Amino acid sequence: MLPSKEASKWGGSLAAFVFLLVLPLPIWTRLFFDYLHHGDGWRQGDWLINFGAGVVRRGVIGEGLILFSDLTGVALLVVMILTQAALFALLLVVFWSIWRLHYFHTIPVLLAASPMFCLFLWAGDVQGIMRKELLGYLALAFLILCSANPRRFSLFLTLFLLFFALGNAGNLLHLFMTPAVILGVYLLYWEGLISRRDAYMLGLAVVAIAVLCFGFALTFKTVPEYLGMCQPLIDRGFDAGFCEHAIRWLVPHEVDHSAEVRVRLTPENIQRFAAVSVISVIPLLLACKAFAEWRFPILIIGASFLPLIPLYVLATDWARWFSISYMTAAMLLVMANMAGRLTMKKEPSWLIVAVLLIVAIGLTPDHGIGWRPGGVVTAFIAMIRDLT
User: SS in 3 state form for 9-21?
Assistant: First the structure.
């Protein structure tokens, strides 16, 4: 039998290989097909909301991408796909860096062994990939690196604030991450990396970003029609049908959001979502059980899950909301463990981690309400079929 440290190193290396090289393959493949098919109205459409029909929430990033395309002469579709590819690649690199810097490899792998971990969700249902929560995950990941690698504290702190600001400007989902982000700022103070004064200033900066973006979104909530928003994209090579999804949904009278929610709230869908959600939180609970402290993990989980609850009655991307909460809680638990705020009481079993990984591979959530039996396995089969 392998010694504990050797087993941890072997198991962690195998898990990192699966997570960062194998699991993303269906995601990369779908992004490549999006390029071949001239973009997807959801995956790329939300990023290309713009001010063509008037100033509107979520439009800042789209305006920036259009401006960059015009200035460089690079086709807007290419700019969009390369931006998403670069952000996703950066996220994988940062995940790798966090794993390498974590002195206790079992915990991050355990927390990643959940169907709601973003890579499982995205690989199992590629309709949910490349959404703007990428920006929020990058913000949290760089906040972790502030703690894990103090030598580059200023760089990582700047990147954290940059991605948090971009995330809030791109989608108000990130507003609901603010309480959890404040806990991350507290961890930097607790670890002695920033003074009390700097912690207050950083916390105020986080709140200011969220409040300003929220005020902008309320002021410019909608536009009267979406054709003006679509025209800049048509002028740059997109088909008019591209605008029928995320862009059209931004215009109130175009879509009955309440009806869209009701039609998906079937007992069967709710039961399936509940089942996969219960399975998904097992790694979170096991990680909390492994720590000697219990109050701070509860605080992290509450700050990560409670703020997003109102979204469940407004839209149907339930698994996306749940995954955002899960990812936020998992990343903060890793950060707290690395900072020494949470101490290990008992090492989680690699056997249990392996079982959870197998379950997460075989059953993933639908990005909305429901589940996907076969999960990643089915996604790989579909990927191979599409490629051949």
Answer: HHHHHHHHHHHHH
